[in-house]
Amino acid sequence: MLGLLAWMVLVFAVAGLGGWATSLSVGDWYPTLTRPPLNPPDAVFGPVWSVLFGLMGLAAWHVWRRVGLTGAPMALGLFLAQLALNLGWSVLFFGVQRPDLALAEILILWPLILATLIAFWRIDRVAGALLVPYLLWVAFAIYLNAGIVWLN
In what way does this protein cross or attach to the membrane (predicted)? Predict the structure, then answer.
């Protein structure tokens, strides 16, 4: 259980930093943007991301529990890299208000999530499956981000 707690602390620390970056402009700059069709209400994002971060932590824990840190250096390295890029997106989009740079970054993030999912799947199918909703949500986020760049 201590391992699960450690992975959850890590992913939710990143979520907290991303939330802080988001708070820098979600109340004033973001509402002024023209958003694409299908953009969910703002209240949806927090709960969705909370669930996704929980699934990420659980997936990493499954891999760690199965083979340890030394048994999956590539898979867990990919996981940490995508986690860093996830935070970077919030900083770029909300922190520095650069949706264009955030779009370029998320186009790198998505294949990295896919690579992580595949690497996790090879070690523990449950861990891979736990990343599917995250991969799909980030695909949707690409649409939203691209729409914002296009419309603004």
Answer: Multi-pass membrane protein
Residue with tokens 């186009």: 107
For 38-72, write each residue's pLDDT tens digit: 999 999 999 999 999 999 999 999 999 999 988 99
Tell me the Cα Rg of the chain. Answer: 16
Domain ranges of the chain: 2-151
Question: Whole-model pTM?
Answer: 0.95
* Three-state SS annotation for 76-118: HHHHHHHHHHHHHHHHHHHHCCCHHHHHHHHHHHHHHHHHHHH
CATH architecture, domain 2-151:
Up-down Bundle (1.20)
